[in-house]
Amino acid sequence: MIDRRHGFFNRDQETMSRDKREAYQRQRLSEILLHGYRHSKAIRSGFEKAGLRPEEVRDLKDLEKLPITKKADLVNAQKEALPFGGFEVVSETGVRRIYVSPGPVYEPGEWDYQDRRWAQALYACGIREGDIALNTFNYHLTPLALMLDESLGMLNATVVPVGPGNISMQINLMKQLRATAYVGTPSFLMAIIEAAEGMHLDLKKDLHLGATFVGAEMFPESLRQKLESKLDLMVRQGYGTVDVGCLGYECPEKKGMHIPEDVIVEIVDTETGKELETGATGEIVATNFSKVFPMLRFATGDLSFFIEDPCSCGRTSMRLGRIMGRTDQVTKVWGIFIHPWQVDEMMAKYQAVANYQVVVTRKDYRDEMVVYVELKQEISDKMGMKKRLEKEIQETLKVTSEVIFTVKGGIPDRAKKIDDRRIWE
Ligand SMILES: [Zn+2]
Q1: What is the pTM of this model?
Q2: Ligand 1: distance of its center to the CA of 304 in Å?
Q3: Residue 19 needs a FRET pair 20 to 30 A away by CA distance; which of 273, 337, 363, 410 works?
Q4: Over 80: is that where the pLDDT of 424 sits?
């Protein structure tokens, strides 16, 4: 029996003490800053705008002095200076691949892929040497599938580069090649499972899956439970973006996502770009150490928080909590920012609440907010409940709002959590 729950891809690195990790990252950071400053026009101009020299960023905390790079900055810079916007540190002929991601963003791929972050993630999810892995991520244009392909190679696992689509072929391949690992999105894995059940296959006997790695989309706990119980194995996720690579991965303990050592992740205030205290929710900003396309303080647009307490798997890194949503889902009411996750967290405390929606309108130049709430069943003290919710909204969101109970089914399942109906003219 293969032990898929214990061990490390790189024990020394994954179990470093906090001081040692900081020293390691400081060293790598100073190398990449110097390298970027010397060879990348965009990075040099970022330093110049900030009135800084690479030597002045001595500590991880000093990173804050550098500007944040947003996706839009990258897209605009590339329009001005095709194809890579001056962020590249190689000549155009020295590139193995040019990846094309939505934006569009063009990204150079190095000849010699040595980034071990995805390999660490795959290992933590239970994939081992000798596995035969179906890689169902799309191999066209974007880098993820190829990065995972290379990383599976680092684990000495065999890859079937199948890509997405054609579910019956996927199932046949799984059976005939006795594939032991799945790599892809969680929703596609669910689609495969449903199709296999439709073919009256026994998921545990007819398929031979032992490990799964999922990513590239939101992964709700309810879907994980479904997948795990149907397949009778653990399903773990990795998190990252095409621009900065892997930023976190779950281990068997499933208590947040370990941040690999070869990237620096910050959680920042979306307004100021300054780092928040540990545990506070903010935007994930990452600095990677790519030799060909280094990204300094790249804003992912995703919201999360740090978890600092130690993990019993033995990995010592900080972890990211779950992804709470996107920064662009924020709504401003009475000049106060309201994120869907804040409403989620607040409502999760009330057992009786089945569904809810925040509706923002504007009347006589004044914002008005109403929270519609659908209850699981009728309760006796509805007035008391209304008062409690209104008080909680006031205290948590700092906005006055009326709570109105709707009939059962009054809020459609796919309704937006915050529906901003204000018209600006
Ligand atoms: Zn862990």
Answers
A1: 0.88
A2: 17
A3: 273
A4: no
